[in-house]
Design goal:
The complex is a heterodimer of chains A (519) and B (500). Chain A has 519 residues and is of the alpha/beta class. Helix content of chain A is 46%, strand content 10%. Chain A is built from 21 helices and 13 strands. In chain A, helix 8 crosses helix 10, helix 16 packs parallel to helix 21 and helix 17 runs parallel beside helix 18. Chain B is α/β, with parallel strands linked by helices and 500 residues long. In chain B, strand 11, helix 17 and strand 12 form a beta-alpha-beta unit. Classes of the chains: A alpha/beta (519), B alpha/beta (500). At the A-B interface, helix 2, helix 3, helix 4, strand 1 and helix 6 of A face helix 3, helix 4, strand 3, helix 5 and helix 6 of B. Strand 1 of chain A pairs antiparallel with strand 3 of chain B.
């Protein structure tokens, strides 16, 4: 018996004990009909080959370990960013349990969201009654200022019409006629979570600016000097939005963050559960129509939202998740120009500090090869930064990246001598990436938590940047935008590089050299 | 700091009844009427808990429940390690459930083992419009090509499959034939079916019956020589290694475990099971169906057991042994005696720190009742409990064997109700899931996830109880709960803090 009360062993140590090891070996041998270990080993080796990679890349139907989620997740991300707003997902209820769990595992925060709990009868007759009852219940129970509706694939397949359903629900008295229920159709079989962000954000702006689905006057734009800001779907939303607020304050910019979920996903433990906290108010959303311009931090999250805003006469600008010095320079200069302000000396100093840090450290990054996967804009921003550090982002993969993104990535590679050997993989998954890490090895991998399987199988050290991050805590609190964000990313990369060197040089009488105290 | 310490049972009952009336006030009339049937104060001596269950969740209330797909792919089939489980439909379902339930296993992932991988048909609009059967067939070809050491395939249907009229049974049958009789299991676990995860368990059980048992070749040479002491562990998903810390006890008492369902399980083990002399069933809710089937079809008796906490473990070991001869009965006594010193030491260490603490639970499967004994072994008291997806037979078992008079019972609790109940009852610990964890921690109430063991475990068996005790102590007595209140703020502002 290995267990003892003085020093309780959990799964980490317990199963390494001899009793358990013997038990598990017997189980395998006697009852599992396991494959011949030699056969397993042969296959394991074969899966590393060029030949296997070719087969792997010839896949047309099967997806294995994709790096994307479905649309409604993005819609929920948007909805919780508005003041006292509850996301209402019309369709099967299991989906909502998944979105809530997914966000809670990443942010380590509650995520409130309701479902219309459609079942078999709704599949046959449509989900209108679910909408009618659901809106009434949510309105009474959770006293929201707004209910933002989106759909699961079930409701989309049977063709439920949100606009009509919401109108009917209001007629039936579920919620007051003037109560705001913006909506967006978010079919899971189109695009990914970033598409859902786009549709939901567009839905909310369309609702408030364009006459509340035909029930009110359209807002007339009275241009002012304010700037709207869209973050896009972002696992670092807590840290990033606060950083953007700080930067804009320093610059003296009048701004509105549309969908500010940085407070609701960072509430204090002080004895009170805040189901709602912070968020963009309805008054702010309405006033946002008057803004001079709208800035999107992630182009591929706002492909439909920005044109809607542009139709209202605003200037719209999209960035690709700026991390690098150059990208942040461009971001700040663009914003300053639009707002008609000067970039303050304090930010110039911050810039100088990031450049200083890069100068201090880039020798350790220069020439290293990286594989990156994640959402399209994040991949772009990271690749741009690596090029600036003299590293080579040789493999860049986005399961939800399309042709436009591919082109844009290639143009980025072409713009730098370090991009010469870099390749972009739109629409591919992490099983493709596994092959690539074997056939075209890199020094480091940048990705989300699921990258740990690639790290284990291929031995490529993983730098966790992306969404979701489930197995490391509090990363979302640290911005990856702005000069400070660039600094955070730089430090995270350096930490992994140094840790990797230390791990490879810590064998006494074998690698006494290189185990350095000063670097 | 529970307020209930000096209350009589009558006081508690009155308070709980009042509390139920109070929460019902928030609902529109129709909803209040429906929810009232799911909330009750337990009366001892009653045969069940007096609540309706396994009924559709009400739209818009924030149910904590999941769906049939979660019950099949996420619970029953997903842990079968040497088969590839295709999440058939759009990408999300498989993505959100990817490796999120820690069904521990041993194997070479991606080569002969596939549990922590996400295989999906990633449906696009054209698949919805034109149907996905051809794509599914192609997926199976690609699986055979890229993962040739898989021992079988299951098709875990997501919502659209049943709505667009795909014939996954025909595809599976044809491909099985083409691949020389490979086990290919179509599972109709679309998320809209039924009212919760529960129907997904049932559908998954039926799929084992139809596509594993009914296809067994009676002439196939057995993998092993049967013995009179062969048992199968049914309904243990090996969360954090639970099935392993259970298996070791059964083997120590002289039994031979020929299969694990389904944590660290394999297709061969499913196929072995009809040779068992006894099926021992932990999670009744998710696997009673197949146990009953094996009883009818193969004459294998089954026996429910509970491996949470030394009292229930000893009771269960004796109950299991009663199906066998004296050798096994003696074995059970030997095992109980062997672990007694460890249990005494664990209780001596932790009970003084936990005595009298009050717990509220809301979980799924077996845990809303099964863990009560383990808390009681530590001197703790469960004052409220409820199930995500129980049926009435679960509430019968709960009433007859587990809960005390006056316990607050809440079936398919809503976010609002649970929050209010905890606010008023002020337990020292809440045990529920990831969606609830941070709600209660914000309120200053210690919390343990009782689905995932909060990434700890195992909690089953004697080894597991030591970890359970440590974790409950760690949760309740963590210094952090004394810091939730800013020292310059007055007490009345945050009355829920669980600090002593």
């Amino acid at each position: 018996m290995t267990q003892n009360a003085d020093h309780v062993l959990d799964h980490f140590d317990l199963f390494r004990g001899p009793e358990y090891q013997e038990m598990l070996a017997n189980k395998r041998k006697m009852f599992e009909n396991q494959r011949d270990p030699a056969e397993v080993e042969r296959m394991r080796e074969y899966a590393k080959t060029e030949e296997y990679k070719e087969k792997n890349f010839a896949r047309e139907a099967l997806t294995v370990n994709p790096a994307k989620a479905c649309q409604p997740l993005g819609a929920v991300f948007v909805a919780v960013g508005f003041e006292k707003t509850i996301p209402f997902v019309h369709g099967s209820q299991g989906c909502v349990a998944y979105y809530r769990s997914h966000f809670s595992r990443h942010f380590k925060e509650p995520t409130s969201c309701v479902s219309s709990s459609m079942t078999e009868d709704a599949a046959v007759f449509g989900g209108l009654n679910n909408m009618i009852d659901g809106l009434a219940n949510t309105y009474n129970m959770y006293k929201p200022a707004m209910i933002a509706v989106s759909t699961t694939c079930m409701a989309e397949v049977i063709g439920d019409d949100l606009n009509a359903f919401i109108k009917t629900s209001k007629e039936k008295g579920s919620v007051p006629a003037e109560f705001d229920v913006p909506f967006a159709h978010t079919p899971a079989f189109v695009g990914s979570h970033i598409t859902g962000y786009d549709n939901a954000m567009k839905g909310i702006l369309w609702h408030f600016w364009d006459g509340k689905a035909g029930t009110a006057e359209k807002l007339e734009r009275k241009p002012n000097n304010s700037i709207n800001f869209l973050g896009g779907f972002d696992g670092y939303t807590v840290g990033n939005l606060r950083e953007i607020k700080r930067i804009f304050s320093e610059m003296g910019i009048e701004y509105t963050i549309l969908g500010d979920n940085s407070d609701v996903w960072d509430t204090p433990t002080d004895g009170e559960f805040r189901m709602y906290d912070g968020g963009t108010t309805i008054a702010e959303v309405e006033a946002a129509v008057n803004a001079k311009a709208t800035i999107s931090m992630q182009e591929y999250c706002t492909e439909k939202t920005l044109p809607l805003i542009a139709e209202h006469g605003q200037e719209v600008v999209a960035f690709n998740h700026p991390i690098s010095v150059k990208a942040t320079d461009n971001f700040l200069m663009t914003v300053a120009k639009i707002a008609g302000v000067e970039i303050p000396e304090s930010l110039a100093k911050e810039r100088g500090r990031l450049v200083d840090a890069i100068a201090d450290s880039s020798a350790h990054i220069h020439g290293k090869k990286f594989a990156i996967y994640g959402d399209p804009d994040l991949c772009y921003g990271l690749a741009e930064f690596l090029l600036e550090l003299g590293a080579e982002p040789t493999t860049v993969l986005a399961t939800n990246g399309g042709k436009d993104w591919e082109k844009k990535m290639k143009a980025l590679f072409d713009s730098s001598p370090f991009g010469k050997n870099c390749k972009v993989y739109p629409g591919k998954d992490l099983w493709h990436l596994r092959s690539l890490l074997f056939t075209d090895p890199v020094d480091f991998l940048i990705g989300n938590t699921y990258g740990k399987y690639l790290e284990r199988d291929t031995g490529t050290p993983l730098i966790r940047i992306g969404f979701p991050i489930f197995d490391r805590h509090h990363k979302h609190r640290y911005p990856v935008w702005g000069y400070q964000g660039g600094m955070n990313v730089l430090v995270q990369i350096l930490d992994k590089i140094f840790d990797t060197i230390d791990l490879a040089t810590n064998m006494p009488a074998k690698t006494d050299y290189s185990f350095d105290i000063i670097r | 700091m529970s307020v209930a310490n000096n209350e009589s049972v009558a006081d508690i009952k009155a308070r709980n009844k009042e509390l139920i009336q109070e929460v019902l006030k928030v609902y529109p009339e129709k909803t209040a009427k429906r929810r009232a049937k799911h909330l009750n104060v337990h009366e001892s001596g009653k045969s069940d808990c007096g609540v309706k269950s396994n009924i559709k969740s009400i739209p818009g209330v924030m149910t904590i429940r999941g769906c049939a797909y979660a019950g099949s792919k996420g619970v029953v089939w997903g842990p079968i390690k040497d088969m590839i489980h295709i999440s058939h439909g759009p990408v999300g379902c498989g993505q959100y459930s990817w490796a999120s339930r820690r069904n521990y296993y041993i194997g070479t992932t991606g080569i002969d083992t596939f549990v922590t991988m996400q295989f999906t048909s990633d449906f696009q609009e054209k698949d919805i419009v034109f149907g996905g059967d051809k794509k599914l067939a192609k997926i199976m070809d690609e699986i055979e090509d890229l993962f040739p050491l898989n021992n079988g395939i299951t098709v875990q249907s997501e919502c659209p499959i049943g709505l667009i009229g795909d014939d996954i049974e025909a595809v599976s049958k044809a491909k099985s034939k083409e691949f020389n009789g490979k086990t290919i299991v179509p599972v109709r676990c679309e998320g809209f079916r039924g009212v919760s995860q529960s129907l997904g368990h049932h559908i998954a059980n039926d799929a084992v019956r139809d596509y594993v048992f009914d296809k067994l070749d009676p002439n196939k040479a057995p993998l092993f020589e049967p013995s009179p002491y062969d048992v199968a562990i049914i309904g243990d998903y090996n969360i954090g290694g639970d099935a392993w810390s259970s298996r070791i006890l059964l083997e120590e008492m002289g039994l031979r475990v020929i299969a694990q369902w389904s944590g660290d399980g394999s297709l061969a083990e499913l196929e072995n099971t009809p040779k068992a002399k006894l099926n021992v069933l932990h999670c009744y809710r998710s696997m009673n169906y197949i146990s009953r089937h094996m009883e009818e079809k193969f004459g294998i008796p089954w026996c429910e057991y509970n491996f949470f906490g030394p009292s229930k473990i000893a009771e269960s070991l004796r109950k299991i042994a009663s199906f066998f001869d004296d050798k096994i009965k003696e074995g059970a006594e030997r095992v109980i005696a062997k672990y007694q010193p460890l249990m005494d030491a664990v209780i001596a260490k932790y009970r003084p720190r936990l005595e009298g603490k009050k717990v509220m639970l809301y979980v799924g499967g077996l845990r809303p009742r099964h863990v009560i004994g383990a808390y009681e072994d530590l001197g703790m008291e469960v004052v409220g409990t409820g199930y995500e997806f129980a049926h009435n037979d679960d509430y019968q078992r709960t009433a007859q064997h587990y809960v005390k008079d006056g316990t607050l019972i809440y079936d398919d609790v809503t976010g609002y109700e649970f929050e209010k109940f905890v606010e008023k009852v002020q337990p020292d610990l809440v045990g529920s899931g990831i969606k609830e964890k941070y709600v209660f921690q914000k309120m200053g109430v210690p919390f343990r996830q009782m689905h995932s063991w909060d990434y700890s475990g195992p909690y089953h068996g004697y080894d597991g109880f030591a970890i359970f005790a440590r974790d409950m102590d760690m949760a309740i007595n963590a210094p952090v709960w004394k810091m939730a209140k800013a020292p310059w703020k007055d007490d009345s502002q945050s009355k829920l803090l669980a600090a002593e």
